[in-house]
Structure formats: structure tokens, C-alpha cells
Specification:
Helices cover 40% and strands 22% of the residues. The chain is built from 9 helices and 7 strands. The C terminus is likely disordered.
Length: 255
């Protein structure tokens, strides 16, 4: 029912095969989610090929999440090459696991396959948001970390869909969870389809984690030679004061 396709765009195998696999999966009635990485800016020919491959994949897959390898240069510049790429691999693995667990594991506010289908089917280009925070102001802080993750900071203004799942401890209130959902989706399209769920786990006492997939993204930051962050979350600036951060949590797990 749900097929994930991961590939590196710009070469022969990933760029050529991913759209074919997506087409076959769609013919079998599956919801197809592509998770692909884009080349480094210096790889000019591969970057052009990646853009062409992405266009083909978008025609076949329901939703395509693009992760930019260029962001690794700032996130973990001194890592050995294999460890640097494993950071991106870990991010992809966590996303697949996160989406799967929202369906298979019971929650206080449940998400099911129908919810995933509603957001992902025909979702187009998408971006993933991941954040984790602890402390008294964790509801606001988790939004800051999600929107400013150095590997994932893409303008989500005007996005048309959002699948969001929040995990917290027994101390997480309904109001706190709803505030996280509201702040994360404040700049989406006014008619955006937002579906969110929440789960309580004892090992999350005093902290909170969120994972969101924003679909219907229309941003030059997704892929291409000019993919620098060039926007301001004006409404969020006023509410919680978004400032760029550099969270080392994922790097800590890789090391």
C-alpha cells in the first residue's frame, strides 16, 4: 500500500531507475513516496541531470522529498566522507521509520493509512521537518529546531498539505501539542490539508519531538544552483522569534 523509493539523483542508476520503479508501484495501486538526494553544486552536469530525473520522478511518484547534499558542507564539514553521507542516510531512515510508526503504533491522537494517503497522494514536492526539544519552553523550542534544521531548512510558505506527528512524555498537555501543530503550520496555504497526531511515551518525559512532512512545496530551495535560504518566517518571528540554530543531535548519534 505504501512504497518508499530512495535514490541519489544525478547518476545513471538512481536517476533512471527510480521513475520506472515508481511507475510500476503506482500501477499496483500503491502510494509512492520518493526520497532522493541532490548532487553537490560543483557537480554541474550531474545537477542538471538530477533536475531532469526529478521531473520524471515527480510525474510517477505521489510525493517526492528532496534532500540537498550541499547542506552537509556546513552541517558536518570535518567528518570523513563516509560518516558525512551516513548523516543523510540516517535522516532518510528516520523519516521512513517515522511515517511507518505513525500508522502502526497506537497514539492518543491516531493517524492511519487513510490520513497518510490523504496528504501524500498527489502531494508533489515535499520537505521533511524534524525537531526535538526539552525544558519549560519546549513547545516553542521544538518548532524552532524543526524549522531551522540545517539539513532541512526550506521555505514552507504556501504548502498545501502537512502530515504531523508529535511525541511527548506524560507531562505533555493537549494545549502544548496543539500549539506545536499551530505554529508549525501557520504559514501554510489557508486551505492546506493538515492532519496531526500525538503519542505519549514514558521515555520522553520532559521533552518533545515532532516530525512533519509538508507537501505541495513551491520553492527554488528544493534543488538547483541557487538553493540558498532566502526567506523570513515573519509570523513566526513575531510569535516565537525564529533564529538559525545548529542542532548536533543527529551528528551525536552518528558519532
Amino acid at each position: 500500500n505504501l512504497v518508499f523509493i530512495t535514490a541519489g539523483m544525478g547518476g545513471g542508476t538512481g536517476t533512471g531507475v527510480a521513475p520506472v520503479v515508481a511507475e510500476i508501484a503506482k500501477e499496483q495501486g500503491a502510494i509512492v513516496i520518493g526520497m532522493v538526494t541532490s548532487p553537490f553544486k560543483v557537480e554541474r552536469a550531474r545537477l542538471l541531470k538530477a533536475e531532469e530525473g526529478l521531473d520524471e520522478l515527480r510525474k510517477q511518484a505521489d510525493t517526492v522529498i528532496v534532500l540537498d547534499n550541499n547542506r552537509l558542507l556546513n552541517y558536518c564539514p570535518n567528518f570523513p566522507v563516509d560518516k558525512a553521507f551516513s548523516v543523510m542516510d540516517q535522516l532518510i531512515a528516520e523519516t521512513v521509520k517515522g511515517i511507518s510508526e505513525t500508522i502502526t503504533q497506537p497514539s492518543l491522537i491516531n493517524l492511519d493509512y487513510a490520513d497518510v494517503r490523504a496528504i501524500m497522494k498527489g502531494g508533489g514536492l515535499a520537505v521533511m521537518l524534524v525537531g526535538e526539544a526539552k525544558g519549560q519552553d519546549k513547545a516553542n523550542e521544538v518548532v524552532r529546531t524543526a524549522l531551522n534544521h540545517p539539513l532541512l531548512d526550506v521555505d514552507t510558505t504556501g504548502a498545501t498539505g502537512c502530515l504531523l506527528h508529535i511525541t511527548g512524555g506524560t507531562d505533555m498537555s493537549l494545549q502544548e501539542a496543539e500549539r506545536i501543530a499551530s505554529l508549525l503550520t501557520i504559514e501554510l496555504d489557508s486551505r492546506a490539508n493538515v492532519i496531526w497526531g500525538a503519542r505519549v511515551r514514558k521515555d520522553y518525559e520532559g521533552r518533545v519531538r515532532c516530525m512533519a512532512i509538508m507537501t505541495g512545496i513551491n520553492s527554488a530551495q528544493i534543488i538547483g544552483p541557487n538553493n540558498e535560504k532566502a526567506f523570513s518566517n515573519s509570523m513566526l518571528d513575531e510569535k516565537i522569534g525564529i533564529n538559525a540554530i545548529n542542532s548536533g543531535s543527529l551528528i551525536d548519534r552518528i558519532v
